[in-house]
Amino acid sequence: MEFTLAEAESIDLAKKAVAEMLTKPEDLEKLEQYRRKVARKKATVESQLRNAVQTQLEGVQTGLENLGEAQKVISEIKISMAEVEDVFHEKGAELSEVVRPIKEVNRRHQQLKTTSDHIHNIFNVPQAVSETHELIKEGKLLEAHRNLSELEHTRDELLMQLYHGDDAYVDKNTSLHHYYEELIGLSGNLGQSLWMIMNSATLLVTENPTKVVTALRIIEREERIDTMLVETLDLKGIPPSQIPGRPKKWRSKCIEMLETSISNKFESLETTSEQRIENKDWLMEHLSEVARTCYMDLQAITTAGVQCFPPSYDIAAFFIKRYHRGLIEVICQLIDMGLNARDIITLMIWIGDIKTSFAETLGVDLQSVGPLMKTDVETDLLKTCHGQVESNVRELMGNMVKTEQEEWNSQQPPECDVKGKYYTPVGINLFQIIDQNIQALAPLGLPTKMKVLKICLGALDEFQRKYRNALDGYYKDAVAGRIEPPCCVLYIIAIANSCRSCVEFTEQLKGKSVGLEALPVLVSFQIDTFEEDVYGAE
Predict the structure, then answer these.
(1) Which residues of 457-492 are buried (b: 16+ CB within 10 A; e: fewer)?
(2) Cβ within 8 Å of residue 254, ≥6 positions away
(3) Is the pTM of this model over 0.90?
(4) For labelling, which of 234, 322, 380, 404 has a CA lying 20 to 30 Å from the CA of 106?
(5) CA distance 510 to 193
(6) Which long-range contacts (CB under 8 A, 24 or more apart) does 318-321 make?
């Protein structure tokens, strides 16, 4: 015989219970007693179950009866609602006309009550406007704003009562508008005073922070008034356009004024082509002025400004972003003007210096906002710089060969050094050109320094070929007797000494260039070539 899972569990439990009762042989004598006890317990449980079932049945029966009654009531309500709706459609229009005078009286009562509440302010409008103008002229902006707020509050309350009703938008050009129209000009006058303060915020936060705080308190109050008024108008179903001059949005105007002041400051720093022509150091002076202005303004904002402005403005980050943008515009304008190699070097060194100095002294990381110069622009500038450097170096070295030839054919003997040895200035001039160009571009980094070194050594190689050809021609003409300058032999000696000095200068250059892996090979090549020139001359 198969049992379900529940039946099997019950049988197991019964077996365990019997086993617990009959643990000893003598317990069998109590078997009848146990049976009667179980029978009584079973009868009690069955009686409880019957009572519970009976109670549930009675409850269900009562519930069904109540549902029936509720259904009848609902049906009656539906019928009554339908009758009410029919009556409403028939009599609603008539009732509306009957109630209309009452509504109008109520509306007028509300208007009169509002007027009565503000009667003192209404009669004092001309005097209050005049006093407020004087307060603004005296710089007492908080008192002026308090007067203006009271006047505007009275006007707004009256206008909301005027426009709250069925004929709300019939007449928008009421005498009430004319009576309060001076408030628009008064508000604008106060706003101009605030914008003048915001325009000089970077200066005032250190010299007179009270002015800045006062202006910001007024701006924030107006922002809250805007929010509350718009919410009230929305609840009453009145468009904000019905209230003249609202919302003012002075916080947005404050931000715009700060941005305008920053833009004007950078525009005032712009340089002209005339300044560029008249002053060869124009770029350094211009960049120094830009850096000084940015540094002083950001220092004022990051130290004193953050204490004046509410945290929601995040004023330090705001100024850093705007000044970062202004620096990018300055750099782009300079690049568009067309820079020579010297100017490019100055500009790129300045960019690195300003990032470092701002980070170390102000804690302002301009790089975190973004690069001041794009990578492709920097690459193009470096190419231009390298090209100009190569052109200048090759031109200078070419002119040196011509100058040397003219000196060889002169009637004056060559110069002597402190030891009495003859020499020509070619060695000194040559390596001054190389060293100056390498040192000038060294701050731009090792890759740039290496590139310039290769350019100079390439130009030096070309110079050596031209110099050797000129020397060979001069030597052959002298031997053949085609030229007989009085100092020919002395110049041959001077040339040999100069080639020796070139070898020494090249060794010095090699010793200075620690860290440039490719330099020893290139310089060694130049040393060997100079030595060949020396031996050939000897």
Answers:
(1) bebbeebbebbbebbeebeebbeeeeeebebbeebb
(2) 194, 195, 198, 215, 216, 219
(3) no
(4) 234
(5) 66
(6) 318/255, 318/258, 319/202, 319/258, 319/262, 320/364, 320/366, 320/369, 321/369
Which residue, 342, 364, 377, is CA-closest to 291?
A: 364
State phi, psi for 421 to the nearest 5 degrees.
-90, 140
Residue-wise over 205-222: b if at least 16 C-beta within 10 A, else e?
bbeebebbbbbbebbbeb
Residue 408's alpha-carbon distances to 77, 134, 463, in angstroms, are 129, 88, 17
Phi, psi dihedrals of residue 314, rounded to the nearest 5°: 45, 55
- The stretches of 163-249 forming alpha helices (DSSP H) are 175-180, 182-199, 201-207, 209-236
Any idea what DSSP says for residue 303? I
Q: Which two tokens stand for residue 347?
A: 């500009």
pLDDT tens string, the chain, 538 residues long: the values are: 566 777 777 777 777 777 777 777 776 667 777 778 778 888 888 888 888 888 888 888 888 888 888 898 898 899 888 888 877 777 666 666 666 666 666 656 665 665 555 555 555 677 878 888 888 999 899 999 998 888 888 787 777 776 665 444 445 555 666 767 788 888 899 999 999 999 999 999 999 999 999 999 999 999 999 889 888 888 877 777 777 888 889 999 999 999 999 999 888 887 765 666 667 778 888 888 889 999 999 999 999 999 999 999 999 999 999 999 999 998 888 888 888 888 888 888 888 888 888 888 888 888 888 888 888 888 888 888 888 888 888 888 888 888 877 777 777 777 787 777 777 777 778 778 887 787 777 777 778 778 888 888 788 888 888 888 888 887 777 777 666 656 777 777 877 777 777 777 777 776 665 444 444 333 333 434 444 443 333 3
Contacts of 505 (CB under 8 A, 6+ apart): 427, 428, 430, 431
| Strand ranges inside 212-342, DSSP E | none
For the chain, the first-to-last Cα distance in angstroms comes to 130
| Other CB atoms within 10 Å distance of the CB of residue 442 | 15
Given a contact cutoff of 8 angstroms between Cβ atoms, the answer to whether 193 and 254 are in contact is: no
